[in-house]
């Protein structure tokens, strides 16, 4: 793999984590930002200005309740612990505008790298209507949403469930949690926030995936061969979202090392690439 510009992202944790290896501690009382009256007013003003810009540019902007990544620890036996609090998109937008003045909102996002049964990696372009990274290369995902992403019973956040939800909404595929692998947590320094990058087998060919995707969510989809992924990353890195560049870097290094991604037909394209 050739030289990469890593100034715009930082890999906070990396591995090949299965769902039982990722421990999530949710503490909305202890792990939130403290909002002073002055900061609350600045959030309101920043949001008002952002709404005006969005209307002028014809971009989508809406607030949603999000999870804040406040703590991250790697443990023995290849485990990863995440401490989460509460935030929302309005807090994120303000902290993005003033990253050095107050503790960052740090909403946790997700990005999923998918590979098809015929050895292709689908990569989409973000809509020109989105507020962040319009027109740049991304895969599939979104923010870890406090309104949606909970285990049955509703008292424990489900990060792997968020990745499953995004794949079903955007690609029309259902991937069991046991087939998802968390590659790591990447911090986007350009649009300050952390992103959990996953790997998932599509269980479909590239052609089948093109037919099943949500065309409104993903209008422009490239199918990059696994063997050409390193070249794609090197040549297009300035047009690829920062967090995805970090995810691709982890994935390619695991491929180089011959990592044991998984067994069974779903993982056969990676096995063939390694051989």
Structure description:
The protein has helices spanning 37-57, 89-97, 159-171, 206-212, 229-236, 242-257, 268-274, and strands spanning 9-17, 22-26, 65-75, 79-88, 109-115, 120-125, 137-138, 140-143, 181-188, 193-201, 221-225. The strands form three sheets. A five-stranded mixed beta sheet has the order 1-9-10-5-8, with helices on both faces. 29% of the residues lie in helices and 28% in strands. A hairpin with a 4-residue loop joins strand 9 and strand 10. It has 275 residues and is of the alpha+beta class.
Search tags:
275 residues; 28% strand; alpha+beta
In brief:
This protein has 275 residues and is α+β, with helices and mostly antiparallel strands. It is built from seven helices and eleven strands.
Tell me the strand order in the biggest sheet: 1-9-10-5-8
- Summarize the main sheet: 5 strands, mixed
User: Which segments are poorly predicted (pLDDT under 50) over 5 or more consecutive residues?
Assistant: none
Order of helices and strands: EEHEEHEEEEHEEHEHHH
Radius of gyration: 18 Å
Query: If helices are DSSP runs of H or I spanning 4 or more residues, what is the number of helices?
Result: 7
How many strands? 11
